[in-house]
Structures
1.
Amino acid sequence: MKTFALGGVHPPENKISEKAVTEVLAIPPKVYIPLGQNLGAPAKAVVEKGALVKVGQLIGKGEAFISANVHSSVSGKVAKVDDVIDQSGYKRKAIFIDVAGDDWDESIDRSDNITRDCHLSPEEITQKIKDMGVVGLGGATFPTHVKMMVPSGKKADCLIINGVECEPYLTSDHRLMIEKGEETLVGVTILMKALKVEKAYIGIENNKPDAVENLKNLAKKFKGIEVHALKVKYPQGGEKQLIKAMIGREVPSGKLPIEVGCVVQNVGTAFAVYEAVQKNKPLFERVVTLTGKSVKKPANYLVRIGTPVNNLVEASGGLPEDTGKIVSGGPMMGKALTSLEAPVVKGTSGILIITEKEATRPKMVNCIRCGRCIGVCPMGLEPVLLAQLSAAERWEDLENELVMDCMECGSCHYTCPSGRPLLDYLRLGKNKVGQIIRTRAKK
Ligand code: SF4
Ligand code: SF4
């Protein structure tokens, strides 16, 4: 069975919600929908206080090249446009809506009929994806329409679909592949048409045999789609690792997958593309896993964007007494939440409630120069050195040592026997170097 070659770790999986069939979460009385839910510039509000909105109505327009539209996930009245503390812990502009009923925009097809044929041209498909505010749902939230625009001089020959879901605990993609397999594959064919490629490869780690079997069976009805089971190894969901595992191509440092003829999309994104193109449905809800060892009811919920995290926690039996930390995402790459009022956004794949015992960090001691962090780095970096440079604020050296190649997978941090907070240093360093690079580009 295939996997990527360089580095990687095997954290315990704990996929305790994998059998929990997706439930529709009740619509909350209030939602806070951030205007910046994508990698790139935030959208600009196109509604004001007092406006009446329907489900699926455009409320934020992505005007920059890298930006995405934002739609209302509920019907009701705009209470205000104000700052909200989002999952990053920072304040961001959001549209606050008081919910009234569940009145959908008439143009959205709400039937369960699966529409397989798509008569739009590649350009029309990309425009539709843009209009509907689709972004990458694997966590990176890069606007999907931008990813579909192959730069001149480059050519895509295959599409790679990421069904790996390698983060321990998370199961939202797993459920989607079982419950919405056919729709997801139609989404894949639409992406293939937009990219003008004949082949798509779907990679799924072998700890989800039911998803592999389901998609393999369904793929027989589609031309050019192959489904492959992959050996379990974290972080196989990284684009570069997945490409290497699936088709053996290596994306050079600082380059994008298109350099080796690939475009990578997540399974959740393929499903969102299906809904956008075939159902005229903007991206205003998604599947979110709510899980943790002490959670009364670990579950997968279909959640309207803007729903406060607290609503998911309450639906699963409330906050366990021994809660040590609440994380958005998985235990490897996720970020701790500062408030349960933070809204679910397009990039929220899961909410993980970590017990006090699990949240206790090992005591940090001196680096023993064991080199384990170097051995597990899937990007071939030297995390111990990068962390030292970051701590010493040597930003230029940090850039030269390719800190921007770090995908923040946390494998180094996970494996360090000295409890060094490597990922914290790396994120700090990437942030600073990223700022320096952006400032330089503007000059
Ligand atoms: S340096 Fe970055 S890419 Fe390498 S293991 Fe650490 S977090 Fe992952
Ligand atoms: S794994 Fe930890 S102790 Fe070992 S070299 Fe890296 S930072 Fe030092």
2.
Amino acid sequence: MIRLAALLALALAGGAHAHSKSVTTPADGAIVAEAPEIALDFDMPMRVIAFTLLRGGEGEEGVEVETESESGMASVTRYLAVPAEALEPGPYRVEWRGMSADGHPMQGGFAFAVDPEAEPEADD
Ligand SMILES: [Cu+2]
């Protein structure tokens, strides 16, 4: 049983938890011409309790940018945040915290940049 426990611990550390994975739009590190909406897609419902969009690069304090979300604190597989105004060119970071359907607190963050000269992203 000790061996099994060790394997399980390894699996958990390696991110076996299904809902620990989220896909973001824009993608982490992306440079986009515009970002009319910011999305977090989860593979299990997530109650996002805090979502912060900051304008500023890594290591900078950043300026918070107001966003609106229709889902609010509902448990969703897609959390959509719409900036109150079109994002000016520059670096941005997103930080979020949430509660997964099974009660685990989760958090994440990612960064992207807005550059009007960037190639439009291909739709998938
Ligand atoms: Cu969990």
